Amino acid sequence: MSKADQQLRSMAGKPILNGRDSVQKVLDTFRERGGHLAEIVPQYFGLLIENFECERSIYTAVEVTAGSRLFHHIVESDRVGTQILKEMNKQKLPGEVTFMPLNRLTVKEIEYPQTNDAIPMVSKLTYSERYTKALRYIFGRTLICRNLEVATNLARSTKLDCVTLDGDQVSSKGSLTGGYFNSSRSRLEMQKNRSELQEQINNAEGELRQLQATLRNTEQEINKIVGEMQKTEIKNSKAKNLFEKVKSDIRVMKDEQQNLERSKQPKERSLAQLKANLEAMQATKEGLESELHQDLLATLSVQDQHEVDQLNDDIRRLTQENKEAFTRRMKFEADKNKLENLLTNNLNRRKDELMQALQEISVEDRKMQLDHSQSEIVRVDARIIEVTELFKDVDKKVAEAQKKDKLMKTELEKYKLKEKEIMEQMEDDAKDLEKMASRQNLLHQKIDECTKKIRELGSLPSDAFDKYQNLATKQLFKKLETANMELKKYSHVNKKALDQFISFSEQKEKLVARKEEIDRGHEKIKELMQVLEHRKYEAIQFTFKQVSKYFSEVFKKLVPQGHAQLVMKTDGDEEGEASEEQQGTTDNFTGVGIRVSFTGRNAEMREMNQLSGGQKSLVALALIFAIQKCDPAPFYLFDEIDQALDASHRKGVADIIHELSSQAQFITTTFRPELLEHANKFYGVKFRNKVSHVECVSREEAYDFVEDDTTHI
Fold first, then answer.
1. What is the dihedral of CA 304, 308, 309, 312, to 10 degrees?
2. Single residue among 185, 201, 235 that ends a domain in this structure
3. Residue 174: which domain range?
4. Where along the sequence do coiled-coil regions lie (predicted)?
5. For residue range 563-604, what is the model confidence (pLDDT) as tens digits?
6. What tens digit of pLDDT does each residue of 58-105 get?
7. Burial of 433 (0-12, 13-18, 19+ CB in 10 A)
8. Domains in the chain: how many in total?
9. What number of CA atoms fall less than 13 Å from residue 623's CA on the CB side?
10. 567: how many CB neighbours lie within 10 A of its CB?
11. pTM of the entire predicted model
């Protein structure tokens, strides 16, 4: 599409196509603003060349007849054209435009001659009835004739313009215009090719929009599934927390029940002991009371009374000792109760907690948790595979779209931007896939943690319960202390080594993945650089081949017996002809060389530094004319280019300028008569009274002036 626009621009001229682009910008502005300005857009119908079709055989006749009017703009009314021009001037947009308002065009009914040698041109055109005025205004007064003789007779008799299929024109006023017309540079052919390419682009954009819609639907499904997974995980987490809470409440209640049962037995023993002490004390009280009522001193002798007094002293002493012994006993009882409470409330409770923990942490529970985690992983893997398949389908569709784009060879910048957006979307999808992979890694980490805890717990020997079941508590604590002492020997071991290893492994995996992503980006950038380098190489080769072809043709016209060629210089060889077999990059090009021969094709080819002054001028002119054919300029200014040329070469230069004058304006200064033969205007520069004067002169005066100057020389 870009190449077609470039070729059309070189044929129609930059101002005209710049005007076309400016009108499109103005229409886009009107659409954005809306309101009454948006109503103007449907009243613009495009260029004249876009609104009719014809057979390929009359392309030349149609182009010669219409000329630059093919690029006139058809509008509904002069108000529409005025609004568009005002907006162009307001925005300072470049280009020139010519509007054809349908309400201002007047077309007369013409009676065409009934002959088999001519046919009205407008009857061979296919167009909408809406544009009849515009088409009849341009082509209504033109007949397509069989040959130039018929065209001359009909133009004289019907007062209509006539044109042949080869492009020769006969005006109704009597003038004849003709010459060779290069059909390969047909503007109608370029416009037809451009319309087909535009249709292909529109179809490709429609397919792209469908693929984007499919991709968005796939993303929505993925987001929906991820949302459902998150909701399920939240429900599982809440249920797990509730289960743990109920489990902890049951454990606390069991601990309270065991504490009550432990404290019940020592209290019952204390109560029984106190009851026995109370009964003994009551019996002692009764015996003492019975003895209290007996008068023993009266019946006793002095010696017995002395013994009684001594016994009373012993009783008082023993009573005092008994009190002290009872005090010590109560103290020992208190110490015993403290030790029993310590054993009951702390050590036995700790033992029960350890036993409860051992019962809770069983291999079967861990296996059940492991199976549940593995089933969860299998489900997630299946979902990942399903999503991956969806991504593969999307990638396949995108690849097909890209393949179609390559076959169509479209290079529009807008389409590239859309393709870039697709690539960015795919990268976002890849990032989402990486997130899912990271979640899978987290699940694997949870499995590893469970496995680690099982390994740390270890497997108990088969005789462990029988061996330690009958041992006393003190022996168990002693063995536990011995085991702890053995474990202290390994306190210097780095317990975080495994965690550090896992952390560093994860960092390594992330860095490796990042490196692979950067490498892929690097490869894509290299591929883009190669594509751009190849395009630049093709553009240079294409331009060089065009200039080289026209240079050989122009030089052949200037020097019929001579031969010339342009050569592309590269690093590999000092000079080598540019051909299609030559491959490489633009960095290999070092310059352009010229080889000419003025005596024949088989004669020795010479370089520029081996030529005379006149020959150098002739070669330079041939190169300028060749460049003019590739990229025409609006006008050329030559200053005595024929000074060093002989008469035959001056005649050849004059003929070339006359041939090219239909496409550009040539202004030359000369003292030779050859350039005057085909000139349209003549100006003489005279020097009088030390002042130069420029005057418009006739052809005869110009010939006299040149001959007079030649005579004086």
1. 170
2. 185
3. 1-185
4. 187-364, 398-443
5. 888 888 777 654 444 444 445 566 777 788 888 887 766 555
6. 888 888 888 888 889 999 998 999 999 999 898 888 888 999 998 888
7. middle
8. 2
9. 16
10. 19
11. 0.34
